[in-house]
């Protein structure tokens, strides 16, 4: 699925509300096929490594199909699946690189907190001996500021990698490493906008999560007397039911997030590259 990047965009960049609205309508109008793809993706999670790559590729396939609908170039599921399957191991490379980056970021944060703790202990050991309450208040405020900065930095980095699988599923001449740089390029200057869109999208999914939590609690209460018998059959049945519930709920939510990603991807390309495609009217 290649597109002309040279001609000017026929519409203005979308507002925050329009992005969520378009994603929601895409999700509702293709719920059945997207749900089945997402359910298949979650089942693949059972298989280590290869199955994880399949999950990543199928999730990206939903975004590819949603993007095709957005730009009035719909694609069949079989055609899109052939494309993403041809890049399956590139998806695995992307997933592995993002995992390693996440581990590196986690180590960096841990080192920072350890350094801050040691520094605070040294300073408290010296200055704190004076017993000045203002000193404790100052260091407390400093710790809060450092915590906020670190959390903000983590969210900022996560957002820069928000679209890593999307270019790989849509664009030509992109591989498992260059798609990370492509996400970094597209999201530059739009981090807080993407975070706001994600927050609104998360709020929309809360009712589904509440329903899932209620059903999960009912299952736990229903199986509690049986589980106390330490029966292998009942324990296995309970695990299977919880897994089915988790996969089904995930399959309901995942297509919505991938549709939102498709609209964000379209919007960012329109802003940065003047994506020369007419946006299909989704009542936005």
Provide an overview of this structure.
Residues 2-11 have low confidence and may be disordered. The chain is an all-alpha fold and 284 residues long. The two termini are 24 Å apart. It contains 10 helices and no strands. It has helices spanning 16-29, 31-44, 50-70, 77-86, 88-126, 133-160, 165-170, 178-187, 191-227, 232-273.
Please name the defining characteristics of this protein:
mainly alpha, 78% helix, single chain, globular, 10 helices, 284 residues
Summarize the helices and strands and which ones pair or pack.
Blueprint: H1 16-29, H2 31-44, H3 50-70, H4 77-86, H5 88-126, H6 133-160, H7 165-170, H8 178-187, H9 191-227, H10 232-273
Helix pairs in contact: 1-9, 1-10, 2-3, 2-10, 3-4, 3-5, 3-10, 5-6, 6-9, 9-10
Largest sheet: none
Per DSSP, the total helix count is 10
Q: Calculate Rg over CA atoms.
A: 23 Å
Which residues sit in consecutive blocks of at least 5 with pLDDT less than 50?
A: 2-11
């Amino acid at each position: 699925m290649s597109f002309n990047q040279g001609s000017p965009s026929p519409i203005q960049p979308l507002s925050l509300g329009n992005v969520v609205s378009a994603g929601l309508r895409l999700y509702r109008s293709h719920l059945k096929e997207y749900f089945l793809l997402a359910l298949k993706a979650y089942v693949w999670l059972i298989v280590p490594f290869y199955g994880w790559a399949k999950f990543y590729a199928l999730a990206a396939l939903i975004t590819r199909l949603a993007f095709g609908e957005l730009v009035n170039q719909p694609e069949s599921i079989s055609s899109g699946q052939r494309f993403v399957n041809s890049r399956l191991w590139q998806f695995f490379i992307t997933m592995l690189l993002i995992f390693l980056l996440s581990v590196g970021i986690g180590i960096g944060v841990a080192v920072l907190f350890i350094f801050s703790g040691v520094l605070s202990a040294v300073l408290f050991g010296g200055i704190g001996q004076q017993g000045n309450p203002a000193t404790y208040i100052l260091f407390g405020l400093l710790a809060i500021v450092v915590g906020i900065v670190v959390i903000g930095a983590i969210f900022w980095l996560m957002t820069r990698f928000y679209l890593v699988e999307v270019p790989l599923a849509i664009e030509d001449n992109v591989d498992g490493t260059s798609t990370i740089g492509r996400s970094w390029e597209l999201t530059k200057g739009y981090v807080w906008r993407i975070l706001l869109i994600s927050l609104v999208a998360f709020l929309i999914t809360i009712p589904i999560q509440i329903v899932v939590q209620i059903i999960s609690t009912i299952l736990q209460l229903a199986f509690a007397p049986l589980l106390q018998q330490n029966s292998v059959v009942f324990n296995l049945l309970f695990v299977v039911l919880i897994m089915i519930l988790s996969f089904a709920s995930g399959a309901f939510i995942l297509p919505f997030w991938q549709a939102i990603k498709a609209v964000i991807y379209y919007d960012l390309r329109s802003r940065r590259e003047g994506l020369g495609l007419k946006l299909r009217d989704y009542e936005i």
